[in-house]
Amino acid sequence: MDTIGLYRTTIGKKAVMAVTGAVLLLYVVAHMLGNLTIFSGADAIDGYGRWLREIGAIWPTRVALLGAVALHFVAAYQLTARARKARGRYEHRRRVQGSYAARTMRWGGVIIGLFVVYHLLDLTVGWLNPHGVSGEIHANVVADFQHWYVVLAYTVAVLALGFHIRHGLWSATQTLGVTTSRVIGLGAAVLICAGFLSVPFAVFTGLVS
Ligand code: HEM
């Protein structure tokens, strides 16, 4: 079977979900760890951002992320449409088994997508940031999280990401037959949420200023 033929199968689409999900998860973990450099001071995080630019990591990462997000979205959409069609007229009840997880993933995905647009306008472009100076990462982040509503928006998005990762990782590792898939999903989600949320709460409480 060729690549296109494989992609047409449900297994092929699920494999695309898993591989693109893994790419996105890798980025999320790297980004979360990079953010933690803020605890070493302004020079550390601003220098880290400068270094990423100097080694030319920015644009290849953007292209890979965009490709991964597009494929992840299209495969998810097609799998949902296929499952709905398969249930067809035999399915009269809306609340079928597994639909809670499916709905959580779909709405979680929408929240994360909307957040990324806001986040880019806030901390990458700077238009929605109270400081908004390119390259001054520490100052931009500190200016942001003085405001409870910005902390709240980031908290909601990070929790949505946590639920998404928990279910996605559980589902993917279970498919591979891993017996500890529940622990892996929950553990990774908790660590990632804690890492991301430590920054807004450290700024809001004055620990980082
Ligand atoms: C509290 C949580 C977060 C903080 C403090 C934070 C901080 C930042 C900062 C400072 C930048 C701009 C870096 C620069 O100017 O070079 C950035 C960019 C970015 N962040 Fe976050 N971020 C957070 C959460 C997230 C999450 C949860 C996601 C993904 C779901 C994410 C995805 C991105 C992306 C895609 C970029 C653009 C990178 C680029 O310029 O290509 N961030 N973030």
Automatic annotation (TrEMBL):
**InterPro entries linked:** Cytochrome_b-558, SQR/QFR_C/D
What are the transmembrane regions?
A: 15-39, 59-79, 100-121, 147-165, 186-208
UniProt keyword Transmembrane helix, yes or no:
yes
Query: What domain of life does the native source organism fall in?
Result: Bacteria
The alphabetical list of record keywords is:
Membrane, Transmembrane, Transmembrane helix
Which NCBIfam families does the entry mention? sdhC_b558_fam
Quote the protein name from its UniProt record.
Succinate dehydrogenase cytochrome b subunit
Originating species: Saccharothrix hoggarensis
